[in-house]
Specification:
The structure is a homodimer. Chain A is built from 2 helices and 11 strands. Chain A is mainly β and about 170 residues long. In chain A, strands 4, 5, 6, 7, 8, 9, 10 and 11 form an 8-stranded mixed sheet that branches. A 3-stranded antiparallel sheet of chain A has the order 1-2-3, with no helix packed on it.
Amino acid sequence: MNSPPKQSGPSIRAIPDGDTRERLICGDCGFIQYDNPKIVVGAVVLWGDRILMCKRAIEPAYGRWTIPAGYMELGETPEEGAAREAFEEACAKIEIGALIGVYSVPRIGQVQMIYRATLIDGEFAAGAESLETMLCAWDEIPWDEIAFPTVRLALDDWRRTKDQAAIVPNLKRF
Amino acid sequence: MNSPPKQSGPSIRAIPDGDTRERLICGDCGFIQYDNPKIVVGAVVLWGDRILMCKRAIEPAYGRWTIPAGYMELGETPEEGAAREAFEEACAKIEIGALIGVYSVPRIGQVQMIYRATLIDGEFAAGAESLETMLCAWDEIPWDEIAFPTVRLALDDWRRTKDQAAIVPNLKRF
């Protein structure tokens, strides 16, 4: 008689044969999990001189404000991922421009790639992961309720470079 | 009596509750594998006007030439990963400079981030993953035996920008 699935997943730390690092291995099935950093893609999205902001409907930072951003998926480029996230979080069709910044957050295994973008038709609305969406002038951004430090930096980097046709991205470690 | 481990790993395609995409799920233990794109980090490494090249001792492209590059690991920044790869593949201590290019290869789920760098002390040697290493003048690069198209582009992007203090990286889809 087979034992029922144990739901344990890769939970044993060991160095696989031929490797040099500890990986998580499943004690049930032997699967080796190669965890690598994840890419977060996002955009500072403009309509005229106003910026698209989203109030998060999910944790972490539920109820706080962010630019549209999320995990890049397989089969897309970073630019395509940033456009997809703007559509999912803010029902917004956007055109991606220059790369503003590459922010490394090694503590949580993330590399964030943030682009400049424009709304294509001015349409937007709260998607499933947002409580609310809005276009803000710079001084209307809810600075005291920003979700993550990298969001603030992305906005600052956008403002510093907004009159430049081509951008040397800010490579910043958090 | 427990059944022996089946070594199957995440191999069943299904959309987990609350998700929107098919993921691979393990039929033995229920583990859900979230596969995201992987980041490859590398560097065009200079010593004077010569470039550090490595002859690959591993597949794919065994025996062909590349710049030092490899998968970014957890706990490091892309710059730290590129420096680690240069040390592993060419026993080279390097100082990382500007970001030359971000090359997306969605077909194989990769984003490659390539930096300009310099050898710190001129020392280098073949590491475990290299058959041979060498410093080449531009015309000495073994152009007919380059491992990957992105290596050729990285070299071209380095040459085009080599006199610039700050670089607008080439954002290129393969």
